[in-house]
Amino acid sequence: MEQTMHPHPSVGESAPDFRLPAAGGGKVGLSDYLGSKTPLLWFSKGLFCPFCRRNMARLSQSYADFVALDAEVLQITHNTQKEADAYFRNYHLATPYLCDADRQVHEAYGVGLEKQSLGAMAENWVTSSAMVAHDLLVNGEKSPAPVPALRMGSFQPSQLVVAVDRGGVVRYVWSGGPFDTLPTVAGLLSLLQGMASEIPAAAQAH
Description:
The protein is α/β, with parallel strands linked by helices. The protein has one domain (19-205): Glutaredoxin (3-Layer(aba) Sandwich), CATH 3.40.30.10. The chain has helices at residues 50-61, 63-68, 81-88, 104-108, 118-139, 147-152, 185-197, 199-205, and strands at residues 19-21, 27-29, 38-43, 71-77, 97-99, 113-115, 155-157, 159-164, 170-176. The strands form 3 sheets. It has a 5-stranded mixed beta sheet. A two-stranded antiparallel sheet has the order 1-2.
């Protein structure tokens, strides 16, 4: 069935709700955090992508800082739960890893697929292979098979970061290409710190 692509949510709009299976079991929904935590959503290419694993490592190293701000990082990918569970059994995941295999949540948030040129595909393949070799030789980490990437051929998913306040309202949106580096951890923490500082004022208004 053909899905309708929506635009990215805008700051000030209500974030589309969802509930997705998580690596390691169970399901996680956006509404699980509203009222108590600030969800930071990251739509990524997934575990098979070494670029994304670099970004995952950066977020994981500072995860305690996110927790200290009552924030939760929710990574959303098009992996199946079976693929994610296979990785989860061998490697620690600091943040919830949610599986949107049919891409319905991606579509709701306007996260599309970008057509890659043959040159870009070749360059990304060389860079990815070097990163995979480094992970294996230095960290002993074997890269998951790139099944989702092969299924999509020359199309690659873009990335999106959305910060949602405790009331379910979008407060920040960043979009990037399939291989872009995420906004800095310091920048994201500063954003969340600013959102946290507004909570008492909002409470007083009520």
